[in-house]
Amino acid sequence: MSAKRFVVGMTGASGAPYALCLLEELLRQGHEVHLVVTEAAWRVLKEEHDWDVSAREGAFRDRWRNLPGRLVHHPIKDIGASIASGSYPVDGMVVIPCSMGTLAKLAAGLSTNLLERAADVMIKEGRPLVLVPRETPLSSIHLENMLRLSRIGVKIVPAMPAFYHRPETLDDIVRFVAGKALDQMSVPHQLYRRWEGRR
């Protein structure tokens, strides 16, 4: 499989392990990944993984320096970044996890930072955009915003693990959700065992 270029956005919803799993798989396959992390997402990384987030960019680069893919980190306020323009070719974008605040802004066509602008570019250019919301319960406002985005082609992949693949560890559940997001971007993987019918 030839290398592709993807954008990955991380917001402040709980679920950093999903993003880390997806990022690692894309880089392991040799893809180019443009990463945008919100301020709230840095807080989540610290809370859920005990990361020293003071290094910011280095926190990700050091983790996967031996993988064949290329990781490009963009500051959240860099509205002049390559991925802020529709003229910059990108094969797809996933926001994982996606907060309800970010989802609401995308549904309203608002861009207040680079992550939102990059996602808005995907929408206007008709490129694949996958959102992985992590919130429960969902209010009517949340559901209406998801419906609005779904109607224009945005893929909504809630972080809902399945159990038909008989997960044995927490990692198995994380890999399932990350794999479902990759499915929507047509990225082949073996993160979880697919259903093949009764044996």
TrEMBL record:
UniProt entry keywords in alphabetical sequence: Flavoprotein, FMN, Prenyltransferase, Transferase
Domain annotation Flavoprotein: ranges: 4-184
Catalytic activity entry: dimethylallyl phosphate + FMNH2 = prenylated FMNH2 + phosphate
Molecular function GO labels: carboxy-lyase activity; flavin prenyltransferase activity
Residues at which dimethylallyl phosphate binds: Y164, K180
E.C. number: 2.5.1.129
Enzyme class: transferase
Highest taxon listed in the record's lineage: Bacteria
Residue sites binding FMN per the record: G12, A13, S14, T38, S99, M100, G101, T102, R134
NCBIfam families to which the protein is assigned, alphabetical: PRK06029.1, ubiX_pad
Function per UniProt: Flavin prenyltransferase that catalyzes the synthesis of the prenylated FMN cofactor (prenyl-FMN) for 4-hydroxy-3-polyprenylbenzoic acid decarboxylase UbiD. The prenyltransferase is metal-independent and links a dimethylallyl moiety from dimethylallyl monophosphate (DMAP) to the flavin N5 and C6 atoms of FMN.
Family stated for the protein in its record: Belongs to the UbiX/PAD1 family.
Protein name: Flavin prenyltransferase UbiX
